[in-house]
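Consider a concrete sample entry:
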Amino acid sequence: MNSKADLIAFTSDKPAYPQSKSKWFGKARKDKFRLVFSFYSPDGCEISMPIASMSAYLKREYPDVELVLDPVLIASDPIGYSPEKFAQRIETHDADLIAFSIMSPHWPPMEAYFAELKQKLPDLPILIGGYQAMLSQEETISNPNIDYICVGDGEYAIANAIDHLRGAKEGPADGNWEKLSDGSVYETDPHQIGDIQALPFPDYDIFEKEDGFDSVNSSIFGPKGVFVLPVMTGRGCPYRCTYCCNTPILEGWKTKKTFLRKYDPETMVEELIRLRDKYNVGYFEFWDELFLSNLKFVRAFLEIYKERLGLPFSINSRVEVMSEEFCNKVAEAGCHTIWFGIESGDEEYRSKMLGRKMTNKQVIEAAINCKKAGINRLTFNIVGMPLETATNMRRTLELNQKIKPEFFFFFPYIPLRGTPLYKTSLREGLLQDLKRNIHYLSSSNDKEFTLNLKEQPELLSQEEYSKICFEMLAFQDANNRLSYTDGDFEQGSEPAHADVLDKSFVLTEEASTITASVKENESPEMITPAAPIQPHRSVLSGLVNLFRS
């Protein structure tokens, strides 16, 4: 097994492990250990990057462990995947362990599944990982049906859980918390893997279906007609946005300089070539927390990518680095779309409440630079945040109306435990009952957009919130204009941009000084207009896809 020399945090200075109180130590006695991975899957075609990474590690280091993937298809098949039906499915696997990767918004609807599993299969240990377990340790382990939680990076931790169940070594399952027979919890430190190059690249084979990968398309906003594959060039983000789950993880990282981890550029491109050839990939989506976390890596990577691969791709970025030079560079390498967060159009609120210091002028300049380079813009925006006013929300809409991104996307604020903005919500008494399902966008009948915080009529009433959300929805319907054709992405062709039915690039006086720098007779409208636009996916389906990772 890997020496784990790259493991930054390891259990130390803990009370002696009371092995006699362990309900599970040495209970897995079969020759063939069987592990079931599961996660909340809206329609069954998603790829979970954490599971892909753990699967790769286990296949390399534990070839005798059999891995099974059985996601919970709540949205696409609520009857077939009711808690009762799901438990029946899991029973057929005869598993030794079931491990869930759970994001915090998915926790409330998933609790019924854990209860049914434990009732039907009391001898099957349940392990929870993902951001839910990392950010809400006490809440997660206190669920009476949960036996283990993984509190950090999962690759070595899941291996330790397997060794623990097998009785392969004395002591706790490091990297996990374990609920003991007397109800107490034995805590270990979270694993923090400093050198991700010690790990194998993610395993996508575990997501293959009977039709191969024909029904697998994990694109959040990518094209149709080609296989879109999510990939990551590293882990970590240096910023401390108050609403983001990465912020408390960064704050708890013992050696912060190692938090930003990237693969070697040459090795990364070689892996992408392998993936392209194996799966006939036509488009890559980079799902890094922040693709630009290491600009030295980015420069080297893009040069190699352009020379050896050249497939169209999308990245996430921050407006502060989206200079004209940068946009031209990524466009030359094949960048098709840049996602960037605006979050709020109110500069003061965005800076004070969200920790985002960029100006609206920078947002507009970045949008212009992208458009001039032929790159499509996708903006992320959050609504219904703590202490947000109706005026704040309208400024978010107005800023997007100025830049007219090729895809405007908005979604409700979701309070993530442990984040600074969650603490603000708690301090202000704004949190709702966390046992209810969190609304990604709206109520089930879509007649009213639903706040995930308590109403504050003096700042933003439920009525005002819903009204402005419908205005945003109308803008989204009228504005969003990405349209894809299969011919744009033929293998070996030049990197193609999306066809766009452009509806004019109108800026207010605020941007007049910016546009003045555009050379005479040089229009910022560089993206080729298309034939009639294809209807874009519904807002709700887009949100469903947002949480695939």
About this structure: DSSP finds 17 helices and 17 strands in the chain. The chain has two domains: 19-186, 217-546. The chain has a mean pLDDT of 83. The radius of gyration is 24 Å.
